[in-house]
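--- STAGE predict ---
source: upstream dedup step, 1 unique chain passed
mode: sequence only
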Amino acid sequence: MERPNAVTFLGNPLTLVGKELKPGDPAPDATLVKQDLSTVNLRDYFGKVLLISVVPSLDTGVCSAQTKRFNEEASQLPDAVQVLTVSMDLPFAQKRFCGAENIDKIEVLSDHREASFGQAYGTLVKELRIESRAVFVIDPQGIVRYVEYVPEITNHPNYDAALQAVRALL
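--- STAGE serialize ---
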């Protein structure tokens, strides 16, 4: 399913592939690649409160800032919360970024192989084959409780609203 003109990049409309998720929807599973090139299923994280930060590329200013912010916030959250960042960046690039930026409180995963996350969560940008910027909060039972699809890819998400949604589940 395609959603034309769903987001913009520098004001130019782009198409998102996949269904738009809403609070109350069951969280779809997806296969992602870890930095050691092993695969992990998103459902493996169910059972905790899950905050998923989705970024187009870690090597850009807003994506870097978003990842650093959620890494900092994760250090103040209990073990009942798992924070993930998902991008299309290759695992090697993710590992380099995490090392250089001291990203150590969150897990950064790649969707480059199958784009299964992007398709399942409606964040795959058809024209660029990158993820759009989005944030999801999933409860321990695997139900989506918070969704933000950032309409302009170059803008920041609403960090406070996402963190409030996480804390409401604790």
